[in-house]
Amino acid sequence: MHPATPPPPEKVATATPPQPDPNRLMRTCANCGAEMEERKCKLICRGCGYFLSCSDYY
Ligand SMILES: [Zn+2]
Q1: What is the C-alpha separation between 19 and 36, in angstroms, rounded?
Q2: pLDDT single digits (tens) 1-58
Q3: Distance 1 CA to ligand 1 centre (A)
Q4: Distance 44 CA to ligand 1 centre (A)
Q5: What is the whole-number distance in angstroms between the Cα of residue 14 and the centre of ligand 1?
Q6: 37 CA distance to ligand 1 centroid (A)?
Q7: How far apart, in Å, do the first and last CA atoms of the chain sit?
Q8: How many angstroms is it from 56 CA to the middle of ligand 1?
Q9: In the 8-state DSSP scheme, what is residue 32?
Q10: Which of 19, 17, 39 minimizes the C-alpha distance to 51?
Q11: Cα 33 vs. chain centroid, distance in angstroms?
Q12: Residue 55: helix, strand or coil by DSSP?
C-alpha cells in the first residue's frame, strides 16, 4: 500500500567532551593547564596567575 520507509538511523550524536575527572571540572587553567586555586569567588592559577571570577566559571 504505502512505500516501505527505512528505519531511522539510531546514531545518537554524542557531543560529550572528554572529562577525565568531573570533580575537577573548571579547576584547570584554561591558559596553561595548571591546577587552579579557589579563593572566595575566584579561581586563581598557580602557574601563570590567570584567574576566573565566579561569574565567569559558573
Ligand atoms: Zn595558568
Answers
A1: 17
A2: 777 888 877 777 777 666 565 554 558 888 999 999 988 888 899 999 998 887 765 5
A3: 66
A4: 8
A5: 29
A6: 10
A7: 56
A8: 15
A9: T
A10: 39
A11: 13
A12: helix
How many A from CA of 51 to the centre of ligand 1? 8
Strand 51-53 to 36-39 pairing: unpaired
For residue 31, the CA-to-ligand 1 centroid distance in Å is 5
Q: How far is CA 10 from the centre of its chain?
A: 26
How many H-runs (helices) and E-runs (strands) does the chain carry? Answer: 1, 3
Q: Region of 21 please: left (phi>0), alpha (psi -120 to 50) or beta.
A: beta
Cβ pair 36, 24 in contact under 8 A: no
Report CA dihedral (37, 43, 46, 51) to the nearest 10 degrees: -170
